[in-house]
Amino acid sequence: MLNLGEVKIYSRVLSIAGSDSGGGAGIQADLKTFHEFKCYGASVITAITSQNTMGVFNIQEISQNSIATQLECVLSDIGFDSVKIGMLFTDDIIKIVAEKLVKFKCKNIVLDPVILSKNNFKLLKDDALNSLLNDLLPLAEILTPNLPEAEILLSRKISSLKDMENAAIDLLLLGPRAVILKGGHFENGNKSSDCMATYDGNKVNIIWLESEKIVTNNSHGTGCTFSAAIAANLAKGMDRETSFQIAKNYISKSIMRGSRYKIGNGIGPVCHFS
Fold first, then answer.
1. What is the pTM of this model?
2. In a 3-state reduction of DSSP, which class is residue 94?
3. pLDDT tens for residues 208-262?
4. Closest CA to 59 of 88, 16, 97, 92
5. What's the rounded Cα separation, in Å, for the pair 274 and 268?
6. Burial annotation 79-104 (CB, 10 A radius, 16+ → b, else e)
7. Cβ–Cβ under 8 Å, residues 38 and 59
8. How far apart are the first and last CA of the chain?
9. How many Å apart are CA 177 and CA 205, to the nearest integer?
């Protein structure tokens, strides 16, 4: 009989997000990223988007029953070392997801608050914002908004690096254990600066990470890929700060690699290949 040796255990990551028909963001980007970090990726699809490099043109939400049963199936059987949450779209979907995460005692939840597409197509309905704030943010290990998303969550403009730091702290007060505010939209010379805020029980700690800003039209899926990389490294046992550093390095390289390719006629994707 063939001896297969020691049984191995996967680092398991679940993506709860929308499907991107163009393959650059959403579930597709998450699974590509998990694979690059040698994690076992599974998915719960919340909506089907009709999109390509030119933008998002239609959204069909998945039925509440289907989302609930997807969650029950994978969480009850496979179990996960981390969970990455992307597009949820409606108030009802948020409540279902929050309920299942609590029921199955999910840990290492990375919440990417997807609100708008790059062509300003709404990916979160207006009446769902309060549920996002009240039901999901307190469950998150790490919240990863970009500047426009943080401005919506806080109902104010963010116009400087100091504003970014204050915004990260104020988002921390809403319940997540850590906040990484992504500064890619901010005009900061040739630097892309991200701010991480954590609370150790005594004081707030701030970490800044910078990378060279890459001039490219291929930036689709940047946020999804970054947060998925964080979730993958949490699943592998890395702490929050290390996961942040590895993900920052990975997304910078993904943008650089993607800048060399041409796909579609609009905003192309980052390159997930290592």
1. 0.96
2. helix
3. 999 999 989 999 999 999 999 999 999 999 999 999 999 999 999 999 999 999 9
4. 88
5. 18
6. ebbbbbbbbbbbbebbbbbbebbeeb
7. no
8. 37
9. 12
